[in-house]
């Protein structure tokens, strides 16, 4: 017996069904926002990651040398791929570009509760707009998707921050601070012990007292305090941009889901402006459900024209979003659904086939016997796939020009004329003949 | 500038749109047949392929050693994975099992016209039924999907054969024939020169005269000739099974798409019974569009209970099916579609936002300005995404309590009351106010 690979999952039909419903909902909300579907390769040249993050990142990737000697990797995220695609078409693409896609990604990391090596994301990105409305549209899409999935503002909270507020504050200390290291420290603020957190800030170049001062600023109620502390254009503009994004989010219906939380830093180095992470308000789902933000430099870093960008990646399937939906009690039922089972008794396949084909052509989910089985086991199968109506096409009934129509929920059944019962209604059921 | 990997494709929105429409059609036909969606890993242990096909197959795979020393491969096909999944759940799964899925696969092969290293398939399989109805259901699904995509019996032809007819005929020669090699030769009958074809049959153990005799049998009009030539139960049963499948296909509406063609052998060694391949009747698409068949031994080979199986894999996206649809003139248009563009002039984001949110909540595709652009470039964008209706929310119009509703096709426009135009119709357009 073969095993599947550790960190990978098989999804059988009943468990797949709520995932499909979730993905379809998220995709349809994205479609209504005008995010257009793209499809992207599972493999890329590894340098899309190593050039920016260094060769060590390979340890976290499914990277390998292909038969042609190329250093390739199974993609751990979408952003570098869409950046490459934007660069490749350059000026051909009219701006703003709004793309979406849902697919798996792969990361060679420690397998633990709720973390898999293969995980799925719906990515949504806007390229070519630095306006706060673009950030707000991404926030509004994400909020709308969660609401459409059944969540409310009681269930989730977008913690919103701005990279240049953090960066600008750090820069205003009279020291040689490693900003990226300090931002990574901030990202761990809620995840590690205070001593470790302050230690990381000290490693990044702050003194202990400065680290404390910096930490206090993160909790400032009035963002003007930050502007005054730093006294730089960078922080003033960043605070202004964050406020503008929140105002646009108000107009787009997403403000109520947002809380400013400057310690929301996002781990990835390519973010440049507003960043946000979605959290479970109850804390039961302990880590970030998903996140996104602005990454204005990446397209240029990849060799393209300067192109501002902002996006979000919602983890679906093997990810945290299903955990949040389950916690909130809005996870769709794990069940199959079937409109009709057409049951044959004796040599009635031809007549049953007529019924099956007609009902399928009307768009219904219709099953029939494909295993040469008897009445009982066909009925058991129909029950197993949650058939709503069973139509029994039996030799003796047919001699009388009839079929039997059985409502599975109630167990009630009645006969109907074979010649006309398909005409009784678009979806003929027990009620039409009882 | 980064390049994508050779043999892989990016799908931008306009080119993606007909692929999405095609996949949705195929998936929805499969759903109506009661094939239930599953999701499966991109990586498997390489031994799922090497145990059966030998280590050389690794040359055609994206196989590598992962960071934990596992010999893994990006999956080149679905069948071994679903076989593994059936074995893993064993008796828990009620039979027949009917599964479907659409996803990419990967094969390290020569890149040529229409052949990619990443290609997509919709796989549909029935497990647990040896009845001819199961084969017929797979044929009927495939035919129905093609018809739903706009093709007719004039466009495509399923060439149907049976492995045991070929195998049984070969066995009836009084020689030590390498059956699998001979079947691979038959698979090449239409693809190579006669001399090479007969040479391959001779390599498999037949004399030249026997090869000619065998070849004549493949074209026999009356299948009883085959039964008589072989004189074995195996061939008699295989012919009976093929006839039974064709009869069931008649009842299921698929017979008209099927032609018996005994030289349809399918390259893969795991097939055991009826096999079929779909061809373009005009021959313009020169190779098999897709194929499928019965593989009754694989689940047992994988360590499971004996479980008959039959399935088909329709190549979508980077595959031959789009070529056939294009050849037949039924390929969907490569275009974006947008119901509304809500255009802002001046400081009207809040009012525009109300309109946008309401129309999106009704399910329409609605875009608005997220790039702080002027009237002209917003209108150009709206045109670029094929917006049907543009609603201009302008400061001056709003002072009069009005918005402008513009029909993009005709260029006609009219004003409508801001307070009530959303109530005029579920989908308010120019016609409601002109």
From TrEMBL, chains A, B:
Top-level EC class: ligase
Protein's UniProt keywords contain Cell membrane: no
Major localisation: cytoplasm
Binding site for L-histidine: 77-79, 107, 121, 125, 266, 270-271
GO cellular component: cytoplasm
Annotated SUPFAM superfamilies: Class II aaRS ABD-related (SSF52954), Class II aaRS and biotin synthetases (SSF55681)
The reaction(s) this protein catalyses: tRNA(His) + L-histidine + ATP = L-histidyl-tRNA(His) + AMP + diphosphate + H(+)
Domain Aminoacyl-transfer RNA synthetases class-II family profile as annotated: residue spans: 31-434
Compartments (UniProt record): Cytoplasm
EC number(s) per entry: 6.1.1.21
InterPro entries attached to this UniProt entry: aa-tRNA-synth_II, aa-tRNA-synth_II/BPL/LPL, Anticodon-bd, Anticodon-bd_dom_sf, His-tRNA-ligase, HisRS-like_core, HisRS/HisZ, HisRS_anticodon
Alphabetical list of Pfam families matching this protein: HGTP_anticodon, tRNA-synt_His
The entry's keywords: Aminoacyl-tRNA synthetase, ATP-binding, Cytoplasm, Ligase, Nucleotide-binding, Protein biosynthesis
An example molecular function term from Gene Ontology annotations: histidine-tRNA ligase activity
Sequence similarity: Belongs to the class-II aminoacyl-tRNA synthetase family.
NCBIfam families for the chain: hisS
Protein name as catalogued: Histidine--tRNA ligase
